[in-house]
Amino acid sequence: MADSPPIAFPAHGTAPDELLAELGTSRADDLGWREGRAFSLVYNSGDHEHERLLEAVARSYQHDNALNPFAYPSLLRIELELVAMAADLFGAPADAGAITSGGTESIFVAVQTARDQARAERGIAEPRLVTPITAHPAFAKAAHYLDVEHVLVPVGADGRVDLDALAEAVDDRTGLVVASAPNYPYGVIDEVTAVAALAAERGVLCHVDACLGGWLLPWWERLGEPVPPWDLRVPGVTSLSADIHKYGYTFKGASVILYRDRALLKYQHFWYDTWPGGLYASGTTAGTRPAPPIAGAWYAVRHLGADGYLRLAGQVRDATRRFRAGIEAQPRLRITHPPDLSLFEFTADDGSIGAIGDGMAARGWHLDRQQGGLHLMLSPYHLRVSDEFLADLAAAVEEAPAGPRGDEPTPTYGGIA
Ligand SMILES: Cc1ncc(COP(=O)(O)O)c(C=O)c1O
Question: Is the whole model's pTM more than 0.90, yes or no?
Answer without folding.
Answer: yes
